[in-house]
Amino acid sequence: MAAQFDIPTEQVVAWRRHLHAHPELSYQEHQTADFVAATLDGFGGLEVTRPTETSVVAVLRGARPGKTVALRADMDALPLTEETGVEFASTVPGVMHACGHDAHTAMLLGAAQVLVGLRERLSGAVKFIFQHAEEQPPGGALELAEDGVLVDVDAIFGLHVMNQPVGSVIVPTGPASTSADGFWLTIKGQGSHGSMPQKGIDPILVASQVVLALNTVTSRSIDPTHMAVVSVGMLQAGDAPNVIPDTARLGVSVRTTDADDRATVARRCEEIVQGVCDAYGAAYDIDWVRGYAVVDNDPEMAAVALAAARKIAGDAASEGPGTSASEDFSAYTQRVPGAFLFLGAGTAQDGLPFQNHHPKFDIVEDCLPVGVGTHVQIVLDLLDDTQEEAR
């Protein structure tokens, strides 16, 4: 790593392990926010506020006036029982930092500490956003954005640890994540004895046809060069093998990266459900859930982020595709130019084959200084006017 400043790696690792051992769910990050606020206060030179009960914002004002750059980390955990076996595993039953938000928070704390020491080099301000509730729509980003956290912000950046080579940095050009929609579907048939199917309307048969038909939406209604996913992740019906139940319930996840595709997929799903149910004489209730929008990386900010990442990670930093997962960082990029990056935290070759949101998800902590360094370098490239290469 080629950072031209000192990174408190041991402290960042310690922060990450403390946070990992004490996870809190979305909108419940009280102890986490208290810990972050107290840590930031300890650095000195920061204006620390609490825009909500479980979020923290700190502002560092440079030696000279200028633009404001925001850096964001999310802090909430997931309702999972940890299975990593690490010595600093979750101490909270049924709650785990399985998505890496503990690492995000620790890295942003590290960046704040470093930048406090570099204040005299900065023309402008840095806003550190420690956000609550990324995992639960409508999401903490939307709440903070609507409360005005971006009013004075000219650009915003965030990063996410992913299952990719340790210390690598991928900067997507264009969509960095997908929109996250979905629906709950209840198919209403008519129950009957299993030996007398002609006396009823079998909701399981109807649901099966719906599942098969939904799998044609992306293959026959969406441009093959576009990313789109329709996944039926839940089908529940019946309690006994010789009883045809009255209802069947499905849960469906929809991901797209294009606004027109988003509308098309929703329309085709509704048409398929109605058509299949009508054909079999069944009724239905459908409840759509509109989730996070696409994170669209601003081309100029993506270029800034990539240049900064290459100064830290060298050839391990590159342009690349976004993720098929979703992120509420979109609430920020819809309002100000920004870029979202992906930091490699380990792969199967490191003994970590498990993706984010798995109860065995873990990271190789060697990635942490790369994340800290990238945060800091982005700010220096935008606000440090004491260097010849400063923007």
Explain how this protein is built.
The chain is built from ten helices and 14 strands. The chain is an alpha/beta fold and 391 residues long. The chain has two domains: 9-176 and 294-383, Zn peptidases (Aminopeptidase), CATH 3.40.630; 179-290, Alpha-Beta Plaits, CATH 3.30.70. The protein has an eight-stranded mixed beta sheet with strand order 1-2-4-3-5-14-6-13, with helices on both faces. A four-stranded antiparallel beta sheet has the order 9-11-7-12. A two-stranded antiparallel sheet has the order 8-10. Strand 1 (47-49) and strand 2 form a beta hairpin. Helix 1 runs antiparallel to helix 3, helix 3 crosses helix 10 (368-383) and helix 8 packs across helix 10 (368-383). The mean pLDDT is 96.
Outline:
With 391 residues, the chain is α/β, with parallel strands linked by helices. The protein contains ten helices and 14 strands. It is 32% helix and 24% strand.
